[in-house]
Amino acid sequence: MKVGNKNNYWVINEKEIDISRDSSNPVSIKIEDPKKLKFDPSRAALIIIDMQNFFCSPLLDRSPEALELSPFIAKAVMNCRKLGMSVAWVNWGNRLDTANLPPSLQYAFKGHPDQAGIGESLPKNLGPSLVKDSWSAAVVDELRESINPEDWWIDKYRMSGFPGTILDQTLRANGINTLFFAGVNTDQCVLGTMQDAAFLGYDSILLKDCTATTSPSYALEATFYNMKAIGGFITNSSNLAVKEKELIGHSEI
Prior knowledge:
elongated, Rossmann fold
């Protein structure tokens, strides 16, 4: 069965969902589905969302679950690079004066009057909150070695990484149509970016072991449900592991 149009389509059979669009060098991976997923790594990117000090650092009393993702994300980055995939770091990087932020967004970060909102000073002399080039907006130290100069760095200003940013432009300019997602929080910024990606026509795959949230379990369950409802897929980073003999002429993983 072919789904799509003559130029942009998936092919689905009893064993596999082929989103590679007749690529000459596809890879097949296991997903949370009886079928496998076949995609073209040269047209795929790993999108890592909000692995920043603001959301992960114990200095701000954050849940350890976020920082514990670091080794899984680092391994995912390595596996994706071996496949020839691109890597994008999508993070909050706001103006200090927050001139581009609506009241609703600023209010969402003000849990109570004493909490530092975006652009305001954090406790313990940690600088402004989620302002570009500040400590709180920096990627956690545990992932710094995973960043390469050729990676794409995208500053975002909403829960989703798409509104008002160069993410869509960068992906399209590089022929990317398939996105793998990692980061925090699963049901907020990760889901928001995945939904916008799906609405813009990208293939979306969530790396379940590379994402976490502090929200209640029902919010996470709803995220996984809605991920599939928008035509996305779920897998684990280990399914992107490449054996040396498979690096030449991609084959099934």
